[in-house]
Design a protein that fits this description.
Length: 356
């Protein structure tokens, strides 16, 4: 269950993005987008999977308490009294209506409103909402919505385009659209992160599972921005013909960010790093790289020669992505280069970490 839940959350983010992208693209005139063919069964299946996957955290809570109170009483209590249960009830109810609307090809405005309701229903049970209800729920939901809008439209263009005649016209509006979405999700994400851990304790939180995952997530965003810049700006200025391989490569990096976000949502937020370290222990990945750490240990960052070389190597991998794009090399090989960047940058930063 500890593995299934974060994987399920990552898949849920992709499914939401897929559905939101479908709604957004219905609002775009045909001449402003390539012809896309999305089987209705994919949309309907996505809604069903969302209902099932969002139930996994609820199931975990039920399994934790049912032996003490009985299965019937526990299920009723979790669904009616716990925020996570109430959130799932709202999500499931809205998703069932959404399934019916999609099945009957109902109004796109209704589809969009139902998806917005589901996003805020999930924000209702977020870590941020438990700390500051209105501000936390709103910031978490806006962050989720912004990334889903960007990723959803990109997923459809990358994987469901059948005739690319209007793809250049599509990129003219999608590029500024993606910039706005990224700006909003960055602002909302920083607000949410500051609620979880003081930004001044960012490095201090690295020994924790939360700190490790958020570091990897932030590192994965860097190659994503490189791909987005190449597809959105460099290609336009160079007058290059759009190739779907590079757009699909960008979507794969977004998928990796989603899965890291899924793992992040299952980690204990380190409101107090030392307290969390004592109760939860250090992250297995951190201990594997740096060894054990005492709960009262102070983490500092001092770059060594090895760390600088690894970070330099990470920069070379980013440069190789750009070179691959300019030389029209394999886009999927560039995805591998992006993964190598993440590994090199992570090891470079970890080599500079000292605990005293």
């Amino acid at each position: 269950m500890n593995i299934l839940i974060p994987i399920g959350e990552g898949i849920t983010y992709i499914l939401f993005s897929f559905l939101i992208g479908h709604v957004v693209l219905q609002l775009v005139p045909a001449k402003k987008k390539p012809e896309m063919a999305v089987p209705k069964k994919y949309l309907l299946l996505s809604v069903v999977l969302i209902i099932g996957l969002t139930f996994l955290p609820v199931l975990k809570v039920i399994l934790s308490f049912y032996q003490a109170a009985g299965i019937s009483q526990t299920v009723q209590s979790v669904l009616m009294d716990f925020q996570i249960g109430q959130s799932w009830m709202m999500t499931a109810a809205a998703a069932i209506v959404l399934w019916l609307v999609l099945y009957m090809d109902g109004p796109r405005v209704i589809q969009g409103m139902l998806l917005l309701f589901i996003i805020f229903a999930l924000g209702y049970a977020s870590h941020a909402a438990s700390l500051s209800f209105w501000a936390g729920m709103a910031s978490h939901s806006i962050h989720f919505l912004a990334v889903a809008l960007w990723a959803g439209v990109l997923l459809h263009a990358a994987w469901f385009t059948v005739h690319p005649e209007n793809l250049q016209s599509f990129l003219k509006w999608f590029t500024p659209f993606a910039v706005v979405c990224f700006s909003v999700l960055t602002a909302a994400g920083l607000f949410v992160m500051n609620m979880m851990v003081d930004l001044r304790d960012y490095v201090q939180a690295w020994p924790l599972s939360y700190g490790q995952v958020i570091l990897l997530k932030h590192l994965s965003i860097i190659p994503l921005l490189v791909f987005a810049f190449l597809n959105g700006f460099v290609r336009k200025k160079a007058g290059e013909t759009v190739t779907f391989a590079w757009i699909r490569a960008e979507s794969l990096i977004i998928g990796a960010v989603f899965f890291l976000t899924g793992f992040l949502g299952t980690q204990a937020p380190p409101h107090d790093v030392n307290v969390t370290l004592r109760s939860e222990g250090a992250a297995p990945l951190f201990e594997w790289v740096k060894g054990t750490i005492e709960p009262q240990g102070t983490v500092s960052l001092h770059f060594s020669i090895d760390g600088i070389l690894l970070l330099f190597m990470a920069g070379l991998f980013l440069g190789m992505i750009v070179l691959s794009f300019m030389k029209k090399r394999n886009a999927y090989a560039a995805v591998v280069l992006a993964l190598l960047f993440i590994v090199s940058a992570y090891l470079g930063l970890m080599s500079g970490v000292s605990v005293s």
